[in-house]
Design a protein that fits this description.
heterotrimer, A alpha+beta (153), B alpha/beta (280), C alpha+beta (378), A: 153 residues, 4 helices, B: Elongation Factor Tu (Ef-tu), domain 3, 2 domains, 7-stranded mixed beta sheet, 6-stranded antiparallel beta sheet, 6 helices, 15 strands
């Protein structure tokens, strides 16, 4: 079984991060499991954790009245789930459900937040990496919005 | 090479419908055989025919069946207007006029010995299917086969049984995603570019062939370039209005290119400066 | 080419009738200029009496008028709204017809296309260049158009060297005229003076020489030749419009977003006149029609224009919806993309598009504006 330290050090998301910061990440990390069908996080709940998917698949969903849950996107192995822990109001904006049995590394966002306030260098490194994820997701979402496969009448 | 046209290249040959199979609520696959026996046409993967419905009109449709054989032509058609509706409404035994094959094909020779990445969006999987058939039928000549396919929703996926069977072939990886999933969909949800990270690609060894709506091809080609593929190892299939399919009517021009004879398949390198031009 | 072709002959104006007779008896259908509906157009003629004797034209942007001239010159005008593509690349052709048979159909192969042997009388240098351009487009690439090829192979060309120039002409700067150098069977230069109303005739081919041999001619004197040369040189010098073709392809490719396109779009009606009168425009469309019973179908080809909205239609809508995109497509194709496609410019400097544009858009002016707005690059 791989150690948390190795998983985090080798993950592309953390590459280039100072050794001291990697250690800090490890001290905030733990292994978690979600059974297929269960919810990892729910809209409105306080956001204090983010996840690194190691196996399985997670669906990001919106629940709207008169609609069945709408899956906005799915995240698979290697993906990062959750950035609302980083920015006020520190609340989840969507549901995230494990589509199948899923294993992940959970990182303590509450702890990391205070560390980022103390050490702005750390804060910058974290924000840079999340900004890139947000940009990729935003671009993909825009393309999804275009509904390119539909027939214009 | 100059091909002398006789009136025949401008004239439709009658083919008979052998079967019409429903793929999705609005998409059907027609299998045609030549009326006069062994008068079939050898086609390259990626080429298209002009299909004519008596009294309705003629359209360019990519050939989507087994390439390099003579006894049948297969077309997957999405019903989006009057002419396509007429095509998909044919019954077995009806005649359809066929001209062709026309156009350039996918770079199956260039891809020999290398990994083949197929990226398809919506009906774009139809013109790419002959490549998949060819690679799987000549497996040792090619490296890894990666098929990345995105469609609007689960019920719009084409060739579902074949996708599963392709996934079981040696050294073949098939990933499917939809823009809108439902609760019963346990696969990927998101645009086809989100599949790249799961595909374990070897960019330096790969040739990519991309087909789908123009916006999708633009994003995919850009993404493939960012992943490390060279621009002339990425091929896309363009579409424009076509009337003659032999470079005379002028309708299919895209910049200096005639899509019917210089294309429809082009290396991304050649089209990159044009793709960003609005209303070209 | 043998020395006979190098010699120039004199044909008297009244003997032009004999040229027409000889061509007619050799089985040619003669097409020449006549006055009709206030313009000089190309129609079937049987006699030199039908030619526009004593007519000249005044052309400017959006303007074409015929005027009487002081003498009985037969070719004292530039070009009118028609070109020879009317005959070589006809405006409407039936390609084939089919008959329904149960669920399928039969192609009826009883199309005996009438074989045309045209003799074109009065082909200007710009129009001769245009014919060569269309040769390239319709027979010079991967496929060959049998309809064009057949009419073209048989066509006998009698060129007329221009001695008159319209304000819309710019063949000199484009490099296609006013002097036709080759590609004709015979070339005529009209001169007058003490020697009488006559033509200096140049042979351009063996069959041209053959026809000329049947006519009564005299060798041209040095004075005749000098007068003819001076007349054509005059047509060169008197041109008021010009284009600078240096780097024209890159210039247009690089200026896709030039503000001038918006300016011209505000004026352009997308009426397609320019494409109809242009001697090199070749675009066509295909129409599939049936009769009332629905049992008989025909496929027809007819002229089309990139200025129409439906020209670029694919499911979901047209690609070029704005008039800006359509004007830009036409001009960029004509002056730039054509070079990549066929190795020459698509423009021959005949100036028809300038005269026949109802709002007077001038392609030479548009090009100049783009060059100037290019910040001095190219």
């Amino acid at each position: 079984m791989e150690t948390l330290e190795r998983i985090i050090a080798e993950h592309p998301f953390f590459s280039g991060l100072d050794y001291g910061f990697v250690n800090l990440m490890v001290s905030c990390a733990s292994n978690v499991r979600f059974k297929g069908g269960s919810y990892i996080l729910k809209e409105g709940d306080p956001a204090n954790t983010f996840y690194l998917v190691r196996a399985g698949k997670v669906a990001v969903e919106v629940l709207a009245p008169q609609h069945k849950p709408i899956i906005v996107s799915t995240l698979g192995v290697g993906e990062i789930l959750g950035w609302s822990w980083l920015l006020p109001p520190f609340q989840w904006k969507f549901h995230a459900r494990a589509v199948e049995d899923t294993r992940a590394v959970a990182l303590d966002g509450k702890c990391l937040r205070s560390k980022c306030e103390e050490n702005h260098d750390l804060g910058y490194e974290i924000l840079k990496r999340f900004a890139q994820i947000m940009e990729q997701r935003l671009e993909a979402t825009r393309l999804q919005l275009l509904d390119v496969y539909s027939v214009k009448r | 090479m100059t091909i002398t046209t006789t009136i025949e290249t401008m004239t439709s040959q009658p083919y008979l419908v052998r079967s019409v199979d429903k793929e999705t609520p609005d998409t059907f696959t027609l299998t045609l055989k030549p009326e006069s026996g062994a008068n079939g046409t050898l086609f390259q993967p990626g080429q298209f025919s002009m299909l004519w419905v008596f009294g309705v009109g003629e359209l360019p449709i990519s050939i989507s069946g087994q390439p390099f054989q003579m006894d049948c032509l297969v077309y997957t058609v999405r019903s989006v207007g009057q002419a396509t509706h007429a095509l998909v409404s044919r019954k077995a035994g009806d005649g359809i006029g066929v001209r062709g094959p026309f156009g350039t094909g996918w770079p199956i020779d260039k891809a020999r010995g290398r990994d083949v990445i197929i990226v398809a969006g919506g009906i774009g999987l139809a013109p790419l299917r002959p490549v998949i058939y060819h690679v799987l039928g000549n497996r040792k000549q090619y490296g890894r086969l990666v098929v990345l396919y995105g469609s609007r929703s689960p019920r719009d996926l084409l060739y579902r049984k074949e996708l599963s069977s392709w996934a079981r072939q040696p050294d073949t990886h098939v990933l499917v995603t939809v823009d809108y999933g439902g609760l019963s969909w346990r696969g990927h949800v998101g645009v086809v570019t989100t599949l790249f990270k799961y595909a374990r690609l070897q960019p330096e060894k790969s040739v990519a062939m991309v087909c789908g709506p123009e916006i999708m091809m633009r994003f995919v080609a850009r993404e493939l370039e960012m992943l490390g593929l060279k621009r002339d190892d990425v091929y896309i299939s363009m579409e424009r209005n076509m009337k003659c399919a032999v470079g005379f009517c002028g309708h299919c021009q895209y910049g200096p290119h005639f899509i019917c004879k210089d294309g429809p398949i082009f290396p991304y390198e050649q089209l990159r400066p044009l793709l960003e031009k609005y209303e070209l | 080419m043998n020395t006979l072709a190098e010699e120039r002959h004199i044909l008297h104006a009244e003997d032009l009738e004999k040229l027409i007779e000889k061509l007619s008896s050799a089985g040619y259908e003669i097409i020449g200029p006549i006055v009709r509906d206030g313009a000089i157009v190309y129609e079937r003629i049987e006699s030199a009496a039908q030619l526009p004797a004593g007519w000249t034209d005044e052309q400017e942007r959006g303007r074409y008028r015929l005027k009487r001239c002081k003498d009985q010159s037969l070719f004292a005008y530039a070009v009118g709204p028609q070109s020879w593509k009317r005959y070589l690349h006809p405006a409407e052709v039936r390609l084939w017809s089919a008959q329904r048979q149960g669920g399928t159909f039969r192609i009826l192969n009883n199309e005996m296309r009438p074989k045309h042997r045209y003799a074109f009388l009065g082909v200007r240098a710009c129009d001769l260049a245009a014919i060569k351009v269309q040769d390239c487009v319709l027979t010079g690439d991967k496929y060959r158009d049998p309809i064009y090829e057949e009419a073209r192979q048989n066509a006998f060309i009698v060129s007329v060297q221009c001695t008159q120039v319209a304000a819309t002409c710019f063949c000199d700067s484009i490099g296609t005229g006013p002097r036709a150098q080759s590609g004709f069977d015979l070339a005529l230069t009209e001169i007058d003076g003490p020697g009488g109303h006559r033509f200096v005739v140049q042979t351009g081919s063996d069959r041209g020489g053959e026809v000329l041999g049947k006519l009564q001619t005299a060798p041209a004197t040095d004075a005749d030749l000098r007068q003819a040369e001076a007349a054509v040189d005059g047509a060169s010098h008197r041109q008021v419009r010009s284009v600078d073709t240096v780097g024209i392809k890159e210039l247009l490719y690089q200026n896709f977003d030039h503000p001038r396109w918006d300016a011209v779009a505000a004026r352009c009606l997308t009426c397609a006149n320019c494409t109809m009168v242009c001697p090199t425009c070749f675009c066509t469309t295909v129409e599939d029609i049936t009769d009332v019973t629905g049992d008989h179908a025909e496929r027809r080809r007819r002229w089309d224009s990139c200025f129409t909205l439906s020209f670029s239609y694919i499911h979901g809508g047209s690609v070029r919806t704005s008039s800006k995109a359509r004007y830009r497509q036409w001009m960029t194709h004509k002056l730039a993309a054509w070079i990549d496609q066929f190795g020459t410019s698509g423009c021959v400097g005949c100036g028809r598009c300038i005269a026949w544009c109802p709002v007077g858009i001038d392609i030479t002016e548009e090009l100049q504006a783009i060059r100037e707005g290019n910040n001095g690059n190219t």
